[in-house]
Sequence to fold (94 residues):
Amino acid sequence: MFTGEVPNSAQISLSAREMEIINHVATGLTNQEIAELLTISKRTVDNHVSNMFTKTGSKNRVALLNWAMDHGKICRDGFNCCSLPDASEASDES
Fold:
């Protein structure tokens, strides 16, 4: 349940599974579709999404995705993406 307090973003840590799920949410999949894709129960996906709402202070999926984009957790259509040089390009410049 949302208490109105927004957690300090520096203290928020999403698990690898939560990151996997948030990436699927960003592609528009429902919790049921994510569950089928990951071969886990829908209830497990529901729980992960709910936990992410609590951790991030988000009230819904749109707010969660906005939070993830704002904090560099997901990249959407080239917006807010980090473009790190490829390892082979970095060694070529040396």
